[in-house]
Automatic annotation (TrEMBL), chains A, B:
Enzyme Commission (EC) number: 6.3.5.1
One GO cellular component term noted in the UniProt record for this chain: cytoplasm
Function as written in the Swiss-Prot or TrEMBL entry: Catalyzes the ATP-dependent amidation of deamido-NAD to form NAD. Uses L-glutamine as a nitrogen source.
Natural source organism: Pelotomaculum propionicicum
Binding positions for ATP per the UniProt entry: 325-332
Entry's family note: In the C-terminal section; belongs to the NAD synthetase family.
Protein name: Glutamine-dependent NAD(+) synthetase
Keyword Ligase: yes
Molecular function via GO: ATP binding; glutaminase activity; NAD+ synthase (glutamine-hydrolyzing) activity; NAD+ synthase activity
Pathway(s): Cofactor biosynthesis; NAD(+) biosynthesis; NAD(+) from deamido-NAD(+) (L-Gln route): step 1/1
Length: 635, 635
């Protein structure tokens, strides 16, 4: 039996001092529990999402030093951990000192595994450079090293031999993406196994939570493990890390796969701690019972990630209090409920900021919500300053000082709407938050973010957009989940859920008359998702093709028959499609550039993993041809 | 003689329809001018900085189609151009369809060069994945392809043979970074030459302007060309492209290097057009006279890039009018002058927004500036709404609806300062801009951006931060340059240049008493630059090391003796250093996440090339040791 400890630690990005302290404590704990081997995640010492901090040589030296302290602590126990491996004598492709995303194996105060290998650590082979990952910018992969050494990368994929309790064990040491090799022509698990034999695979990861990823990992890893017939331990960190525009939660979910690829144990998600696992690596090992891993694609998983992410983000930036503008609408209500699961009521301040366009209905709903949550509440109307601003802008003469010509600016109703939105956020909420000693939240959802149906410096402002990775229908789902499962009572009044979604910035958005947003969420949520989240991103050409083929709803996943119901003609369908595509590629981009960080839960959140430029809107020639044909048929 | 046309075209990113139109027109022009060969830049059809548009299959098909129209137009002329090369049967590392950054050679309606090569186009070998470049995310490099094919990359680096006027010419076809191979272990020019013979090298590029880059290119390219003894044509595009957070200008500067590596001709920077060049490729070629390329590191180059960039950005986003808040200070004055070189006076509106803290001095200077520029001008004071806001926030009771306890928020003087800044931008300027039918500018400079000495939704707001890649001392330089060289008169009143820089948000920032910003620009500009721009980014550990060694000023480039003059003791030096480092890594990051796009001129601008995370501030153990020693010496 091999007594193993999975070190599912919280990694604080950029703090090798704190992380090595955590590791040293966990090593002590593992030793006390008689573990023979203890495993920590990828980049456990520096953290993973650090932006360009990797360019600071002093930081690299620091990580090396703290790494040495971990190696020194490995007396009597085998310690496996991720850190940056630096070759001070070589450069990367950018000419800076060469860095590897590395896997260290330490035993009795020394590094193990450097025999017949260019370094005393193993190197990550596959570097993800898609999604939120940026490995290629900073690290030199084993693939590049092999090419430089004029070798096949396969020759370098060898197990590490360690002696544990008098027995030689061959470990297949891989890092994160090395286990996700489907799309690569290099297959680390398969190759190391072929170069083996291997007794145990160990995948150390720094892998953010996104919906459905664990389910997929279990499928992908199980298959490879079963093919190799060798157990695998997966160790991932918890905590949050961000790359500026997007905040990722790390759920850990460290997992034990047996030689058949079945899961026999796992660590609780979003929970730091050491887990002891007894492994029988002998040929005669008795089959252990399998466990079932919960599905991670439901609203409960979303809630868990958002709750954890918001909580950790607040502590990471040292924010203890939040201010939330509540309109009586669904987004701000869900936001208020979410933060109320994270902070004590005395640290949450809800602010309602009515103008004449806000109905009694929504103002009462806002007050009711505040009462249900029991947090601080205040009403600060914007009407007076709004009117003052409209007058100041419209009545102050604009002059040409050289010829004394002058004119007055015209404040249209559209301009007035945005004045209200900015007055709420930039004038009141920002001031209130500063006076309260905290930050104010951005309550925008993903549907609004997609097409810029938000006001810059208005409702798009805030220190974090915690709901901006949820489509509107998911915001509703979350509302119901919060009421039913978290609060166990109707903390969000039912009427907020039933009300037509509206910005209430003009008489045209009167909720009491059932008037509201121009976005028809049951359809547009799915259209926007096709633009934004589909792996092969849909464009108007794809959408129109599906529409003409009668498979649109099936392809985008909305309710069958919806398009026909909403659009009386192909011309109306096309008009709607072009309008939103232009907003998504145009004003939406301009606004997202200045939007707050988004808390990610989906497979693709706005920010670093949705790279975009403020470029001109383009319709492909294929689209234009389809459109012409469709219009001709009608004409 | 080979009659060659350099197609220094303006590339519109994301518009293959427009770009292929430009190419077709230029081919016609080249043909009319009897050119035998015409060359267009890298990614001339799709554009280069497109974010994740590369994931849209319809867009890829579109680029292919437009590419075919260019190939079809190559009757009687050899056409060289960059486009995306798609292999629909293979995938990239991300599992999406495989894309190459490709070099196409077309002649008589057909592609040339596919013999003994896996594709009918050449593939970029070296993929920059540093700075603002993101090639690895989207494209499969020749290095990866070679590894997949189990070949040495060198075997694939072969010239392309074309027949021109009955003579076989061997062209060394490379793309951009392939010419910048110093840091790579693959050397495309050297290798293709060795695999040759080669008659002519052609480097097609999409290379943004940054200060000093052309000077460096000329050194790097000349050296390789001289070693090979073969002439090289460098063709780069003009226009602007952006990646959301950062806007890059492309200066073209297409260049002819003779067989000795000397420059015999070049295209005017920032100017689109076809240039005809006669090349003698025979062994007995007579040496042509060399030309001198102007230095591109001076303030004139900065001005040229900013003027071009601002102008092109306005037309790219369809903005015809701008509103500029002018305080009577230097940044807004330079911003107003810059935009006045781009737009007619009737499309520029300057707004002065005084509170009681704004001196008569600066208000008069603002009015004087407006008069000098002859654009629209208005004064909209913020005092009333500012006072109203302070009262509204401070006097509206905050209640707990459950127990009716209540309290009042306290609006401190610091909170008041930011209220003023936001009132100016989010209330007045945003409203005025919308009513005027344009956008409002962000006038922040790089020094402020570095440490977040700006107010979010206040002076950090705007549609573009045109001066945010200039250190404060460069803003002054630009002011002098504008007066002297662009306007030829004192359009920026001398007093604005001489005045102490100040935010004028409190009595502590009274310019008439010589009080102003906490940043001592002659020192901090250089300290911040060391943090941010140095290739090996400096951290407090480096700074303190240099300080103790007495080489600080030399290392960071500021005036000798300045540190001793500013800081009476090491303790004072350390306090200052830690204060700004914390702001740079802390609040500065949070603000930059929501900052407007920055117009880049330096080797490193904020945005996509300064990747950063909202992480905890870290001081390395090396720094802490140095600090302890230094403080002990004193104690």
């Amino acid at each position: 039996m091999l007594r193993t400890a999975l070190g599912q630690m919280e990694v604080i990005p950029g703090r090798p001092d704190l992380n090595s302290r955590t590791i040293l404590d966990m090593i002590e704990e593992a030793r006390a529990q008689k573990a023979e081997i203890v495993i920590f995640p990828e980049m456990a010492i520096p953290g993973y999402l650090l932006g360009d901090t990797w360019e600071q040589r002093a930081f690299l030296r620091d990580c090396e030093e703290y790494g040495k302290s971990v190696v020194a602590a490995s007396r009597g126990i085998c310690v496996l951990f991720g850190n940056v491996g630096v070759d001070w004598n070589k450069t990367g492709d950018d000419g800076r000192v060469r860095k590897y995303n590395a896997f260290f194996v330490a035993q009795n105060g020394r590094l193990v595994g450097g025999e017949k290998y260019p370094y005393p650590f193993r190197i990550k082979t596959l570097h993800p450079n898609y999604r939120e990952f940026d490995d290629t910018r900073h690290f030199y992969s084993l693939r590049k090293l092999a090419q430089e050494m004029d070798m096949a990368v396969e020759e370098l994929l060898q197990p590490v031999a360690v002696e544990i309790s008098g027995r030689c064990l061959k470990l297949g040491c891989i890092l994160c993406e090395d286990g996700w090799s489907e799309e690569y022509n290099v297959k680390p698990i398969e190759t190391i196994h072929r170069n083996g034999p291997v007794d145990l695979f160990i995948n150390i990861s720094a892998s953010p939570f996104t919906l459905g990823k664990n389910n997929k990992r279990n499928r992908v890893f199980s298959k490879q493990v079963a093919a190799a017939g060798v157990p695998l331990l997966y160790v991932n960190n918890v905590g949050i890390q961000n790359n500026g525009k997007t905040v990722y939660t790390f759920d850990g979910y460290s997992t034990v796969y047996d030689a058949d690829g079945e899961i026999t144990d796992y660590c609780h998600p979003f929970s730091a701690g050491l887990k002891i696992v007894e492994l029988d690596l002998s040929a005669s090992a008795k089959k252990r019972p399998c466990v079932t891993v919960p599905d991670d694609r439901d609203i409960a998983s979303i809630y868990k990630a958002l709750h954890y992410g918001a909580s950790k983000f607040l502590s990471a930036i040292g924010m203890k209090k939040v201010v939330i503008g509540i309109s009586g609408g669904i987004d701000s209500a869900v936001s208020a409920c979410l933060y109320s699961t994270v902070l004590e009521p005395e640290n949450v301040l809800l602010v309602n900021m009515p103008s004449v366009f806000n109905s009694r209905t929504t103002r009462d709903l806002a007050a009711g919500l505040a009462q249900n949550l029991g947090c601080w509440y205040t009403v600060m109307p914007i009407q007076e300053v709004f009117e003052y601003t409209v007058k100041q802008i419209g009545r102050t003469p604009v002059v040409n000082p050289n010829n004394n010509s002058e004119f007055n600016l015209n404040v249209s109703s559209f301009v007035s709407e945005n004045i209200q939105a900015r007055d709420r956020s930039a004038r009141i909420l920002a001031g209130v938050a500063a006076a309260f000693g905290g930050g104010f939240t951005c309550n925008a959802n993903k549907s609004e973010m997609t097409v810029g149906y938000t006001t810059l410096y208005g409702d798009l402002a805030g220190f974090l957009a915690a709901l901006a990775d949820l489509w509107k229908h998911q915001v509703y789902e979350l509302a119901l989940y919060l009421n039913e499962h978290i609060y166990g009572r109707e903390v969000i009044p039912r009427k907020i859920i039933d009300l037509v979604p509206s910005a209430e910035l003009s008489p045209e958005q009167d909720v009491d008359q059932g008037k509201g947003d121009p976005i028809v969420y049951p359809y547009h949520d799915y259209l926007f998702r096709a633009f934004m989240e589909h792996w092969n991103r849909a464009t108007p050409e794809d959408i129109l093709t599906w529409y003409t083929q009668g498979v649109l709803e099936e392809q985008i996943g909305c309710r069958p028959g919806l398009a026909a119901q909403l659009f009386s003609s192909p011309a109306a369908f096309i008009e709607d499609l072009e309008k939103w595509w232009k907003l998504y590629c145009g004003m939406g981009v301009a606004k997202r550039i200045q939007a707050p960080p988004v808390l990610a839960v989906s497979r693709r959140a706005y920010g670093f993993d949705h790279r975009e430029a403020q470029n001109q809107v383009h319709f492909t020639s294929g689209y234009q041809k389809l459109k012409r044909e469709l219009m001709k048929e009608i004409g």
